[in-house]
Amino acid sequence: MEAICYYRRSTKQYQKHSLGTQRANVRAFCEREGITILKEFEESASGRDDNREALLSAIALANFHNCSLVCWSVSRLGRNSGSTISLLESNLKIIIAEHGLHADPTLLALQSVFASAEVRQTSKRIKLGMAAAAKRGSKIGNPDMHKMRRASAVKRREIADKRIMKIGNLIDVYIELGLTQKQTAEMLNDSGVKSPRGKSWTQQKV
User: Fold this and answer.
1) Mean pLDDT, residues 96-124 taken together
2) Is the pTM of this model over 0.85?
3) Alpha carbon of 115 to those of 85, 123, 194: distances in Å?
4) Cα distance between the two ends of the chain
5) pLDDT tens digits, 45-61
6) Which of 5, 33, 79, 136 could form a disulfide with 47 if both were Cys (CB 3.0 to 4.6 A apart)?
């Protein structure tokens, strides 16, 4: 059996050594199960971002080689339960190493829901803490909201531009692998990657 491996850490400083641990655990798992690693991808990115460049490239290569995608845990795959469950239920064979080669799909789906709920609970605790501080008379928020709104708009444009760049890099991977425009469009659709306008890909859009 052959596989592409994917490792992710969040942008939080306390996860500084997370990638090395994942890599060591997944490599040991693959060796134990007789899985040949074709390529490894890693990145530091939020699990709520569905357009992570390394993840998209890993999915692309796994689809191209018709092999499995191996992650250490469901939370490393992503923390958006809807997108993660869709990926787990896609035609791509995904192996979550910490649960073994033949993990129950229902268990993995539940793990995805828990990972997403953990993020929501953290956000809720922060909001409750801010509300409590406001009641005590502490000043909450940025007094220069106009500047913040402008900065937010710039940030949204930057995120949109980065997403387009990531998709472009992914298309380059497919083309380097020798796929035609039609095959590239099919691969993007099979991988669940939407066009910049949020639609399915056609040969003309590639």
Assistant:
1) 71
2) no
3) 11, 13, 24
4) 31
5) 888 887 888 998 898 88
6) 79
